[in-house]
Amino acid sequence: MNNILSEKEYQHFIMDRLVQDNGYIVRKSTSYDRFFAMDRELLFRFLNDTQPDEMDALRKIYKTDLEDTIVGFINAEVTKARGSLLDVLKHGIEISNMKLELMYTKPATTFNRELLAKYEKNIFSVMEEVWASDKERVDLVIFLNGLAIMSFELKCNAAGQSYQDAIYQYRVDRDPKTRLFWFKAGCLVNFAMDLEQVYMTTKLAGNATFFLPFNMGNGEGVNAGAGNPTFKDKYSVSYMWEDILTKDTVLDLISKFIFIETKESKDELTGKTKKSENVIFPRYHQLDVIRKLLGDVRDNGTTQNYLIQHSAGSGKTNSIAWLAHRLTSLHDADNKIIFDNVVIITDRVVVDRQLQKAIMGMEHKAGLIRVMDDKCNSADLAIALNGNTKIIATTIQKFPYIVDSVAGLKNKHFAVIIDEAHSSTAGKDMAAVTKSLGAGEQEGIDMEDMITGEIRRNGKQANVSMFAFTATPKPTTIQLFGRLNTKGQREAFHIYSMKQAIEEGFILDVLQNYTTYDTFYQLNKEIEEDPRCKTADAKRQIARFVELHETNIAQRVEVIIEHFRTTVMPELGGMAKAMVITASRQGAVKYRQAFENYTKKKGYTDIKALVAFSGKVKLPDDETEYSEASMNGFPEDRLTKEFDKDEYQVLLVANKYQTGFDQPKLCAMYVLKKLKGVSAVQTLSRLNRICPPFEKKTFVLDFANTYEDIKAAFAPYYTTTLLSTSVTPTAIYDLEAQIDAYTVLDPDDIEKANELLYKKNISAKDKQKLTFYFKRAKNMIEKYDLIKQHEIVSAMRHFVRFYEFLLQASCFEDTDLHKKYNFITYLLAYINIKHPGGGYNLDGKIKATNFVQKKVEEHTTSNLVAQPVVKLPTAESFGLTEAKEERLSEIIAEINSRTGKAYNNDVAVKAMLQIRDILLKSDKLKTSARNNTVKDFEFSYFDDIDDALIEGLEQNQDFFSLLLSNEEIKRQVLGIFTEEIYKSLREA
Q1: Number of domains present in the structure of the chain
Q2: Which of 105, 334, 377, 477 is such that its CA lies 20 to 30 A from the CA of 29?
């Protein structure tokens, strides 16, 4: 392995490999036609060589204009609205009733000699330093039969650059409108690559270009992380020229893998349907698993079963679509087709629709796939299995029937692909299945148990191969489907680990902010006692932490609701949701009742809960029969749709929706039930979906399990360190001191940036200013050497991580620290512009962090923004008598001398108007006013006043905090207004 020391050397090294090992030809960049992104000479060499008769016939028609006509026609086809280069490569073009192919794929069998000869005639070429436009020079471009299909930006690590600089180049220096980079019409894929890692994108979009990893993963099995392995004698990315850029792989990718995905979204307001298109290029593990499976099946026919352990975020729908599509046309060494039918089993009809779309995207052929929905009965299924439909997609309930049917059809061979062997619905459907399994209590039976049970009972059928995809296989599944390794243990045929998915940013690590109630309680006590921490008044309620009483549901509900309202709800721009895991169906009912009672008592209208459990249930001493539908007020099958709406925030579940339930807005989970093994992993993993453009943060508050339990449950899938054991307010101040010591952040910039971030409308000019502040900080960091730079950035990341944990898990508050946190999160995003993923997009980021504004209004003093305008009911005021006015003045004067403030009567009157508006919402007080004298009314008035003060905090933090913290002053001020409030309520 020679040492590559510069970008230029790297370029030439790859070109040598392509020429010597892969039969490419090198072309001069002068042969490149930038207006059509092609090498015309090679295009016509290919056409004349492979289709001489057609070309002769066309030459007679078009004479000397033939070349321009063909080039113009190809260009028109690939640039039209629904057209694409991919389509033209796969299906050729038709001119004057003549069909011209633009590439030849490898025939499935060896029978057709002529096709094989044409396949050998595809021309692969490479050009370096290609001028795509006057301003853009691209390191390498690869052509197939003269058409540009891939571009490369190369970086050399030894020269102090990396793939991140290549990503930066694509985002900043490459114009998406240049013909070479034109979406769908230019290159099919663009690679950013150094000697260690590879990233790719199929669509350039300036700063917001999304880069996906195209790495092998580094490590073994479940411990594999992001990146690539290191080898003694070759570069980490050598698989690119040894495999991906070989002729067969490139043709395979174009003809069998890359496809255009069309997504339709309906605009709720206008009712119009919007279509968006994406070019899907497989990630490395997807390509790898499909090829390995096909290779193994080619050798072993239908003798084996396969377990594919792919984490959430692995792009499973596409992997299954590719596999199904390829299995339909797979031939063995004797050129015989291996499978007559492919059956896909999923537990969600929605997935079937996605699958159907994906498969149709790969090959538009009538009758290729049929979806058997719930309306289809077993007879329909039998007809389909006997018929010629290549791919049949159906739901899990039909599984026992399928097993029996395919066993009966001994003369046909079947591939059965099982998607995510866990069902999200225990209930009606599973009950039928349970009967067939002869199981007793239905709790905990899921798709995986059922499938393993069926196979155990029936043994492996000689004419059926099963392919089970699951993120978290149970031991029984591994026993049945796993392959023996050299150590004599069974393991999955292919693994894409959770660790890799997390490191690559496709899912979140749900244990990042996992804490048990004990820690939560201790932490908050510490903060209350720490003089540096000013706790937020609105969070005072969660600060009423109690050593929990075993049976006290009300206490837990209070902790859950108050934590959710103050800490979770503002996330995702106010759309965040939570799940409460109850221990039993009765528990779900009781918690829902307690939930309703508490929110009613507090007058909270912004938080609503749904419940989910199977069947009907009665409570002791209560004759009512409760069911999910009766409590929610709509049928069970509408739950996922309803819960997605903005009006519901919390879902209380009992053995339902703990697996397979996909809701990206779930940010928090409150666990009230012992969780073990796989079920713990699946349950907590409900939170792991990312929710772009938001930087989603997850939080788990566990009342029932210990850190040890949860660590042990996750160990087989990935290892992680739990934070909550080490976070204290002291730790966060230490980190702050460490960052301050580097003197890279200017306090003045932090102040100014925060002022801009809290403006109602941020203008383009403000964004420029913000970017200027971040740039200045970045320049300061870059004055240090590289190792120090890493240290600084890593200290900042730690700080953000710790601070977010504290914010979520406690009533901690420090305004200055919060400003610093805001600044640092944006700064990190700015520094990250070179990172893969979604890129630095200030608009998206500001949108995504709107929640901070709400959060901060709630818990910082208003010195952040020049006096926020308080919305006040101005139309009327209290008509106070002179005596009362005077008395009020005395009280206010006394308050001012005690507190050093400068309040006047107006402040108190305005505050009382706000309080009155809040109290007017209380039915309890209205009733009390109607049925009591002023004297008796006073009792309930003083009882309920605290809630009103807490609710009004946002509008009038200063004065209300004062009243909340001082019983005596509160009674004096509010006593003056008792009669007025009493009158208002009686009249209401």
Answers
A1: 5
A2: 105
